[in-house]
Amino acid sequence: MSAMKVDKEIRLSWTGSGLVFDGGAVDGPQIVVDGDFATGPSPMDLVLLATAACMAIDVKVILDKGRVPFDSLDVTAQGERREDPPRHYKAVRLVFNVTGVPPGSRSKVDRAVELSREKYCSVLFSLREDLALEIVTEGG
């Protein structure tokens, strides 16, 4: 694998309790990730959350640039996982609820969602099969 140019770095650390980890950007805000879903979202919840958030941010930016007013923007993400390991999502549904859009601008909301899906959502494109993944183990 060729040398990777690092654009972003996060750190995840086990808290010493169960499947609970703290993580986030180096020198940035931290969140709790819990494989048992007791004290924070699970990694698979975060996949849905990151996808929904990425696309929602894209949609807001696109609507703002297009000067399309709206009152609220909510996204519900639903996932269907495989029964057997690896239990990845085999289907995801995102439901965008954008209220307060002028009647003549409804198609601009649909276009903003389409642009996010097809061109801009970094999370969605990072989930692709052609992602180059390098894994290094360290420690003693």
Description:
The protein is an alpha+beta fold. The protein is built from 3 helices and 5 strands; from the N terminus they run E-E-E-H-E-E-H-H. It has helices spanning 43-65, 106-120, 122-126; strands spanning 10-14, 20-25, 30-34, 72-81, 89-99. The strands form 2 sheets. It has a 3-stranded antiparallel sheet with strand order 1-2-3, with no helix packed on it. Helix 1 (43-65) crosses helix 2. The two termini are 25 Å apart. The model has no long low-confidence stretch (mean pLDDT 92).
Structure, briefly:
With 140 residues, this protein is an alpha+beta fold. It contains three helices and five strands. The strands form two sheets. It has a three-stranded antiparallel sheet, with no helix packed on it. Strands 4-5 form a two-stranded antiparallel ribbon.
Structural descriptors:
single chain, about 140 residues, alpha+beta, three-stranded antiparallel sheet, two-stranded antiparallel sheet, 3 helices, globular
Itemize the secondary structure elements and their pairings:
Elements: E1 10-14, E2 20-25, E3 30-34, H1 43-65, E4 72-81, E5 89-99, H2 106-120, H3 122-126
Antiparallel strand pairs: 1-2, 2-3, 4-5
Helix pairs in contact: 1-2
Structural class: alpha+beta
Mean pLDDT: 92
**What's the total count of β strands?**
5
- Percent of residues in helical segments? 25-40%
Q: Rg, please?
A: 18 Å
Largest sheet: 3 strands, antiparallel
Q: What are the secondary-structure elements, in order, as H or E?
A: EEEHEEHH
Residue windows where pLDDT falls under 50 for at least 5 positions? none
**What form results from the Cα inertia axes?**
globular
Number of helices: 3
As a percent range, the share of strand residues is 25-35%
